[in-house]
Each structure stands twice: as C-alpha cells, then as structure tokens.
Amino acid sequence: MPIPGPTPILALSVGPFALLGLAIPVVILGEILARRIPALRRSNVPPAILGGLLVALALLACARWLPGHVSVQGNTANPFWLWPVLPQWDFSLPRATDVERPFLILFFTCIGLNASWQVARQGGVPLLIYLGLAAGFGALQAAVGAATAAGLGESPLLGIMASNVSLMGGFGTAAGFAPEFEKAGLAGAATIGIAAAAFGVIAGGLIAGLVGGRLIERLGLSPRTAGAAARETDAPSGQGFVAEALGLFRTGGSTLLHLAVLVACMKVGAFLSALIQRTGITFPVYMGAMIVALVVRNGHDLCGGKWLRTERTDEIGSVALMWLLAVVMIDLQLTQLASAALPMLVIVAVQVALLAALSYWVVFRVMGRDYEAAMMSAGMIGFGLGATSNALATMRVLSARFGPSPRAFLIVPIVGAFLIDFANALLTTSALNFFR
C-alpha cells in the first residue's frame, strides 16, 4: 500500500464561488491580450476563451509540476444559487452540479426570449437549408467517427461518442447519453465524452474565428455586400465585459424587469425539463427554459406588448455568455485531455479537420458566398465542435470587428441551440441501436 506524501505547506484551493469571481479578471485578461497583440486580435478568438485557456494551461502545469498545491472545485450544492434552475420550490439541498449552470441556462433563456416568430420567419428557406447542413454534418461526424474508431481497432461506439455526441452535442449531450453508451458496452463513456467535448470547445473557439475571418478578409466581404441592414442589437458594442456590465447597471429598472422575466422562465423551464426527462428523451438542461421563454416572447408579441426589449435581453445574454465561457475554460480539467487515450484524440482531431473543411468549402458556398455566409460558417464550427455559446461568442467578436450580420445572428442560435439538438438526439439514438 503506497504511503501518502506530505501535505503541501502552500496549497491553494479555488472553490466554486471563487471560480465565479476569478472568471471576471480572466475575461479582462483576454480582452487586454486581444487588444495589445495584433495576431490574437486577427484570430478573432473570444476573450473569455483566450484568457480562460491561459489559466487552464497554468493549472495543468501546476498539476504536472506542483501536484496537490492547486485545486479547482467547480461543483456546488448551494440551494440558493441553484434554485432558479432546480425543479423544486423549496430550498432543500440539491445534487451538486456545475456552479456555472445558472449562467448557461440564463444565456439560452435569453435566446428563447428573443426568438420572436415575427423575426424567426424572416429566416425562411436559408434557416431550413442551414439546419439541413448541420444535421447532415452531424450524421457525417457519426459515420466518420465510427469508421475512424474501427480503423484504429476500437469500438465504433467510441467513435460516435467522440464525434457528434460530444462535439455537435456538447458537454450536456455527452453526459446525458453516457449511461446508455456504458450499457451498450463502451467503458468510461462519461470520461471519454467530457474529454472529447473539452477538446472540441478549445478547437472550436480557436478555429471558428480564424475560418470566418479568413473568408471575410480574403474575399473582401462586408455587411453591405451581404445586403443586410445594420441593427444595433446584432453586434456587441465592442467595449468589453466591464463596459457591458456597467451598461446594465445604468439601465437598472429595465434590467431588473427583464431579469425577473428570465428567472421566471428558468424556474418554470426547470420543471418542464424534468417532465421531458421522465419520458426517457435526453435533451440539454436548458431546453425547458428556452421553450418557456419562447412561449412568453411570442405571447407578448401576439398581445401587442412593447415592454420586452431585444437589445436589453442581448446585453444580459452577452454578459452571461462571457462569464460562462470563462468559468468553463478555467474548469476544463485539461489533465483529462493529457491522459486521454490516443484513439480518442485521433478521432477528435479528424473531426476538427473535417468540420473546418466542410464549413470553409461547403457552408460558405451553399449559404450564399457573402458576408452572412462567412459568419454562418464560423457559427457552424463553433457549435459543431463545441457549443452554441462558442459560436455566438466568436460571431460577436467578428461582428464587432467587421460589422453586423442580422441574418446569421437569427439563424445560428435557432439551429445551434435548439433545432439541431432534436436531430442529434434522434441520430445518436439510432446509432446506439445500430451498434449496440
């Protein structure tokens, strides 16, 4: 039996709420680096991902050379913090979950609250085409992943878990489907899924902006060539996290009103999500809140209401998004990637190259070869390799630099955060039954 080593004299433990506080200077660090280093600015990597990745790498170095000195705890069971996203009315102690969960659900609830049918119908045929491309790419991810795994002498289930499940689906889908993959015979499915999703988040955040920016600059595209009218709500102010947060404080009454509506949607949505899960269908944790917010917004519009303002919801969602991404990046646990099996890393690397090529050569051409098409190509990489939050963060950086893209900001969130999850769930269930 090994003898435990001595406890480090100097040890730093970062708890879940300290992690939330640490995320703020991390975002600011990313913004400073992006402003001062031209190469980083041209890469269009969201500041939260940039700063968070640096901190995650520093934590990986500590784990390697100073084991036991630094630890990060990203889970919490605080009933007051998690109450808005729990399917319960009391404040009993819940199951420990990610401390950033309220920010995740808040961000997607903002998307739902802005999903007005009057606006969504403007997406028309391009939205359906983009959804078809995303669903087709998901199927191709699964097929290529299974074939790559088989070529490496591994189970096709490994290839599927490390492709469309973890990449197109993200952390939530990977965690949700992991028990079914375990039952089907894939040992360690949860660890594989989380590691693959983490790799995808990093790759998507780094590559999406590069591909979108290259298309825009190489072809000299601009919002004017896309024929899109500029709208202030489509792009961030570009002033940074602190400026946007202060802007919300300056509009105190309106901000509080919208936050109250959003929290109410999150709470009702928690019960709806629990109801959906009882049917045995696996959906992302934010789906219920998005649906409730969508119903509230369209009911408001149908009644002729004018008090829900898209720009205010956008501002709240932008702050939640930057905060969320910074926390996720810091808490990536890169040691899981460092110790992951080589076959999984090979499969994910093939997926990254595949989706980058498809977005650059196919999405851009099919969606119109214009500025909006370039933005949607970047968005496809963002949610196809990691998460919709990644896609929108990259698109916000691009739009702040090159100009607004109303059609892309309409279509990408609807497809990436909502519709593709239905298609991906059906695809994953079919693949599981086929390879079981």
Report on this model:
- The structure is a single chain.
- With 436 residues, the protein is mainly alpha-helical.
- The chain has one domain.
- Helix 8 crosses helix 10 (189-218) and helix 10 packs antiparallel against helix 17.
- The chain is globular and about 60 Å long.
- The protein contains 19 helices and 4 strands.
- The strands form 2 sheets. Strands 1-2 form a two-stranded parallel sheet.
- It starts with 11 loop residues before the first strand and ends with a helix.
- The protein has helices at residues 16-36, 38-43, 47-65, 79-82, 101-113, 117-120, 124-151, 156-168, 170-184, 189-218, 241-250, 252-278, 287-302, 310-330, 334-338, 342-366, 371-385, 388-402, 406-435, and strands spanning 12-14, 70-72, 75-76, 97-98.
User: Average pLDDT value?
Assistant: 84
List the domain count as a whole number. 1
Number of strands: 4
Order of helical and strand elements: EHHHEEHEHHHHHHHHHHHHHHH
Termini Cα gap: 39 Å
Number of helices: 19
Q: Mind summarizing the main beta sheet? A: 2 strands, parallel
Question: What is the general shape?
Answer: globular
Helix content: over 70%
Give the strand order of the largest sheet, numbering strands 1, 2, ... along the chain: 1-2
Strand content: under 5%
Structural Rg: 21 Å
Helix and strand content put the structural class at mainly alpha
Described by its quaternary structure, the protein is: single chain
The residue ranges in which pLDDT falls below 50 over 5 or more consecutive positions are 225-238
